Every structure is written in C-alpha cells, then in structure tokens.
Amino acid sequence: MAPYLESVRSFADVPITDAGVDTVAFLEAAQGLVGLFGDADLLGSAAFSVVQSDLKSNIAKVRARYDAATAVSATLEQLVENEKGEKKRTATEGLLWLLRGLSFTCKALQNSQANKSEELAAAFNKSYEGTLKQFHNFVVKGIFSVAMKACPYRNDFYTKLAADPAGGPPATQEKLDEELNKWLAALAAIVARMEEFYEKGGHGKGF
Fold first, then answer.
1. Is the pLDDT of residue 69 over 60?
2. Neighbours of 123 (CB within 10 A)
3. Does residue 207 lie within any of the structural domains?
4. 105 lies in a domain?
5. Are 34 and 59 in contact (CB under 8 A)?
6. Cα separations in angstroms, 133 against 127, 136, 149, 179
7. What keywords is this UniProt entry annotated with (predicted)?
C-alpha cells in the first residue's frame, strides 16, 4: 500500500472521454495533491502555504463555475468553452493557474523520482525554473525561493508518504514508487492535454 496516495483520488482514475477531462474527478484529484502541501503535512513547511493557498483558490474558482453551470461543465474543456463568451472568465483563468501549479508539483516529484540521490529542494528548484518562474514577478519569485529552501529532507518526505496513518506497516519503497509514478504520469498527461487545448483555442489570452 501507499497510504496517502490511496487515501485520495488518483489522477489515473480521472475519466477522460472524447468530450474531455471529467471536471469533478479532476478537482477531487487536485484536492488530494493539495494535501501534500499542508493538510497531510508531507512537505511540512509553512513556507509552502503560498502554494497550497493558490491551488485551493483556483480549485474553488473552477468548482464554483461547475456548480453554477453543471449541465455545460461536465468536462474541463466544456466548462472553458462555455465560459468563452463571458466578459470575466474567472474559471478559465483559475483552471489555467491550477494547471500551472499542478505542473510545477508534478515535474518536481518526477525529478525527485528520476534522481534518487537528489534532495527535494533541488528537484523543486529545477521544476520551478521550467514551469512557474516565467509567470511570476520579483516578489513572488522571492517567496518561492524561500519555500523551496525549506523543503524537508528527501528521506523524511518519503517516509511520511509511505506511512500508514492507522498505524499499520508502511508501504515498501517499490510499491510507493509504483503508485507515485502512476499518479504523476496520469497528472502529466492531463496537464499536457489541457495545455494543448488552451493553446489551440487561445483560451489563455489575457491571463
């Protein structure tokens, strides 16, 4: 077992059809990822509260749009298309920033998985350079720099991720790697799909 990962919806279990990525399932999986930054105390740094807060805020924006227009928001693509003609596209912008935050986290953990001798701070720094940094001003860059320096030690993070909150035996490293890699691969595929959708439709203009 990989206890934390099995306690939340996996991105691998988010249905994707010809109509697009299932909105509710995606938001549930994204909420599970937010737990890494605070709720489950896995990354264990108050400095990461800015990341957690940003992800939560953008999940809420997409959720509010879904609740207000459920019939035309079953998939992320439909939700964005439906909001297109409106003056203020709050959910479209929120989803764009949510995808950026998810991409940052995904690439950081993929870096960590690919480089077993590397500390988390290095993995997150490398990811930040290639994802969020280009969208941030000087002040926000400084906040993220502090957050990444405060990353827990690699061993502490993986020990917490493998631990069973109920007190049972922890997941083996092999099982943990298997579950985490599957989770991250599915997330990366969704992010890539949605980035292409935004690019082709020009949905990110103005944000």
1. yes
2. 22
3. no
4. yes
5. yes
6. 9, 5, 15, 28
7. Transport
Report the CATH number that the domain containing residue 80 is assigned in CATH. Answer: 1.10.3520.10
DSSP characters for 146-192? Answer: HHHHTPPPHHHHHHHHH--TTS-PPPPHHHHHHHHHHHHHHHHHHHH
Each residue's pLDDT tens digit, 189-204: 999 999 999 999 999 9
**What amino acid is encoded at 56 in this protein?**
K
Question: Does residue 3 contact residue 162 with C-beta atoms inside 8 Å?
Answer: yes
Question: 191: which 2 tokens?
Answer: 């992010």
State which residues form the domain around 154. Answer: 8-201
Number of domains comprising the chain: 1
12-51 pLDDT, tens per residue?
Answer: 999 999 999 999 999 999 999 888 876 546 776 665 777 8
* Whole-number pLDDT of residue 34: 87
Is the distance from CB of 1 to CB of 7 less than 8 angstroms? no
Query: Does 186 map to a domain?
Result: yes
